[in-house]
Amino acid sequence: MVEKKTDALPKHVINMAWILVLGAIAPMLDATMVNITVNDLARDFGATLSTIQWVITGYVLATAVAVPFAGWLVNRFSGKWVFLAAEIAFGVFSLASALAWNIDSLIVFRLFQGAAAGMLTPLLTTLLVDLAGSDAMGRLMAVVGLPIMLGPILGPVVGGIVLQYASWRWIFYINVPIVILASFLIALKLPNFEAKDRHAKFDVIGVALLAGVSSTIIYGIVQASTKGDFTNHTTLAYVGAGVALMVVYGIYAHFMGDKAILPIRLFTRKNFSAAMVGMVVGGVATNGAMLLLPLFFQNLRGDSVIVAGLSLIPQGVGMLLARPIVGKLIDRIGARYVTIVSLFITLVGTVPFVYFDGHTAYWLVGLVLLVRGIGAGGILSPLMTDAFVGGSQRDSGSISVASRTFQNIGGAFGSAVIATVVAGYMTTHTSIAAGYQTGFAWSAGLSLLILIPALFLTNKLSKK
């Protein structure tokens, strides 16, 4: 009886978690839905591909820049109203994007939409930690990770269906009812979270430096993906500038102490530093494969966008199946072995793609994707959870900022690395299948790097 009581999450906590997740779903879907509208936007606005690309790149950069602001806002004001304001802003600029009259207005509206989206995910994490404390962290992070994991899978499916029957403007219109419902529930059901420090001063320099770190590194990585070369001058300059800003921030935060938006002392905790490294490496490993899978179905098997999206459903099902189990295991045994076991399950679901081609049976591909989903569903959650272990409630905002920043960088880097590898291979070889197989081989190999930070994550078994 005691064990059951320990495992059970209070119903009100579960309800609050799902309301917050509902608020984060639209931004997660939007990040990938818009990617498939490039041709439609180019045709309707008569713009070049390089200009249209800023509809996507601008959103990503604005998301990265906004993340540090979330940490200060949630410390200074009630988390409920900050989250609600960001949610409403996302809805307003989604509507504005749908009504855009030229490509310039669309890019501007997407920048504001991305800024709102950039604050929602770290706010979501912070509020859940404040709501439930550390005992149920694993189970709650499994809920938080759901929109982050399913967004790249469901986004192309929803986007493909919308484009099949309506114009690209409906990619943005469909966000509006979701935002209205989420905003209503947030205002009505979410408790008033007390500000952690109503007198907290805005760390202008710290926020500017962190925003500069993430935006310059991500922009440099995006340029590498576009040019198909990590040694081009633009990439080296921007990534180098990002690293330099990171060093400057480290020096600045050292002297500022706890007044910094992201205190350096957090990195003195072994599990926190390991979680941050794990998020970067995990993003490299998982996002690369996420990029390849839709292309595998479309370019290698000749499937439509909708069919390719539907073919990825088994992976989403696997993630859903893993979510509750992973959450309970994290709370019981810690993040270390959950991450390691999930990694190897992910590899079992990735390595077969090194040998798959356009003639591989759909049932076999679907089965492997199901396995991959089960594994991938257990990588992000333990890393996110362990970042909070040992930290105080006052640190939750800063930890959320750090987590999202490292996730963004790792995700962008992973997509760029795999895209560059595949593009480079195909320029010297004629086999499309071999190009994708090489990409999956790289993804599997890079995944093994997660083992290094995983060894430094929390292990509750050793304490029993």
From TrEMBL:
Keywords: Cell membrane, Membrane, Transmembrane, Transmembrane helix, Transport. The keyword Transport applies. It is found in: Cell membrane. Signal peptide: none annotated. One of its GO terms (cellular component) is plasma membrane. InterPro entries: EmrB-like, MFS, MFS_dom, MFS_trans_sf. It is a multi-pass membrane protein. One of its GO terms (molecular function) is transmembrane transporter activity. PROSITE patterns: MFS. It comes from Weissella confusa (Lactobacillus confusus). Residues 16-462 form the Major facilitator superfamily (MFS) profile domain. This is MFS transporter. The keyword Coiled coil does not apply. The chain crosses the membrane at residues 12-34, 54-74, 81-101, 107-128, 140-164, 170-190, 202-222, 234-252, 272-293, 305-322, 334-355, 361-384, 405-427, 439-458. SUPFAM superfamilies: MFS general substrate transporter (SSF103473).
